[in-house]
Amino acid sequence: MYWRYAIKRILMGILIYVIIIFIYSILFNTVMEETLNGQIIEIVNGEMLKMSQVGTDPEYLLQYRQIRIKELRTLYHLDDPLPSRIFWRAINTLTFNYGNSTIMRSFKGETDVLAIVLERIPYTLLLFTVAILIDIVVGVSLGIKKAQRAGKLMDQTTSIITMVVYGLPSWWFGMVMIMLFAFTIPIFPSGGFNSVPPPNTFLARVVDTLYHLALPVITLVFIGFWGRAYLTRNIVLGNLQEDFIMSARARGIPERSVLYGHAMRTSAPPILTMSLLSLLASFNGALVFEGIFSWPGMGSLYWAAVQQNDIPVLLGNLSITTAIYIGGIVVLDLIYGFLDPRIKVGGKA
Question: Taking the domain 121-296, which CATH number applies?
C-alpha cells in the first residue's frame, strides 16, 4: 500500500532530522553555553541598572544579582550534567526555540533568531526558484532536442559547451557578469534587492525587484541549464532505445507522441529528482553567490553569522535549512513512489 510507504518515509525523515539536531547540539554545546552566560549577565546588568536608578539598596542589588543569575542558569539548564544540557538544547532547537541573537538584528530590529532566519527565506526562495524553473524549462527542452539529434552537429557542439561551462564556479562567473553588465556595459545593477531609496508605488517596487533579480538569475541559468540538458539527453536517449519505444513506433504512433507520451513519461522521475535536488541544494543560499550579488538571503545570513560569531543565528539557520532539505527529500520520495510503479511500496512490488 502506498500509504504505508508514505508513512515510513515521513517517519524516517523525522528521525534523521532529530539525529542531525542532536549532532548540532553536541557540536555547538560549548559555544552556545558561553553565549547564554553572556546573555544572562547582560539581562541581569540591565535589570540592576533600572533598579539602581530608583534608589535600590546596593546590598540588595548584590543579593538580587546572585539570585537572578542562579534562576536564569536553572531556567536554561546550565547547571545540569552535560548530557542533560545537550538534550534540552536539542529540544529547544527541535521546537524552534533558538533564543535571541547576540549581535545580529532582523530588518525590523528584532533579536529573535527565528524571526531573523524566517525573513531571509523568501529572498533565497525567490532567487533560486525562479532561476531553477527557467533552468528546467530551457535545460529539458534542449536535452530533448539533443536526444532527437544524437551524434549530430548540435549535440556535439552543445556537449562541448557543457563541458566548458559546467566546470565554471558560479561565484567566479557571477563576478565576471557583474564586471561586464554592471560596470563595463551598465545594463543591470551590481547587487541588492531594491534600489536605494526604494520606489514608492507597489508596481514600481515589483519592477525594481525584477530588475535587480535579472542578473543573478541569468548567471545561475546560464551555468546550470547546460548540465541539465546533457543529463536529460542521456536519460531520454536511453529510454528511446527501450523495447516499448520500438513497439510504439512499430504500431505507427507519431514520433512526437512517442517522445512526449512514452519516453518523457518514463524519464520524468530521474529528471524530477535532479530538478528538486537542485532546488533543495539552493537553500543553503549558495553562500558565496549571494554575497557577491549582495542578495539578502539565507546564504548571506549564514556568512554574516560566521563573521560576527553569532552562534544562535548560525544554529537557527543550519537547523531550518536542514529541515527544509530533509522535508524536500521526503516529498521527493513520495512523488517518486507515486510516479514510478517499479518502486516497491510497503514491501510489495
Answer: 1.10.3720.10
Which of 344, 225, 343, 222 is CA-nearest to residue 274? 225
Closest CA relative to residue 129, chosen from 319, 281, 244, 9: 281
Per-domain boundaries in the chain: 2-102, 121-296
Q: Are 16 and 326 in contact (CB under 8 A)?
A: yes
Distance separating alpha carbons of residues 150 and 169, to the nearest angstrom: 28
Instruction: Report pTM.
Output: 0.79
* Phi-psi sector, 163: left (phi>0), alpha (psi -120 to 50), beta: alpha
Question: Tell me, what's the pLDDT at 13?
Answer: 92
Quick check: 261 and 176 in contact, CB under 8 A? no
Interior/surface letters 294-304, b for 16+ CB within 10 angstroms, e for the rest: ebbbbbbbbbb
Q: Give me the residues of the chain with pLDDT under 70, please.
A: 1, 282-286, 339-349
Longest dimension (CA), the chain: 98
Q: Scanning the structure block, which residue is given the C-alpha cell 514520433? A: 255
State the DSSP code for 199: P
Q: Which amino acid is at 25?
A: S
Q: Which amino acid is at 195?
A: S
Alpha helices for the chain (secondary structure H): 2-53, 58-75, 82-94, 113-118, 121-148, 153-165, 170-178, 202-240, 243-250, 255-257, 264-281, 287-292, 298-307, 311-339
How far is 117 from 305, CA to CA, in rounded Å?
A: 11
pLDDT score for 178: 92
Could you tell me which of 193, 34, 208, 219 has the C-alpha nearest to residue 125?
193
Q: What is the 3-state secondary structure (H, E, C) of 206-254?
A: HHHHHHHHHHHHHHHHHHHHHHHHHHHHHHHHHHHCCHHHHHHHHCCCC
196-228 exposure pattern, b = at least 16 Cβ within 10 A, e = fewer = eeeeeeeeeeeebbeebbebbbebbbbbbbbbb
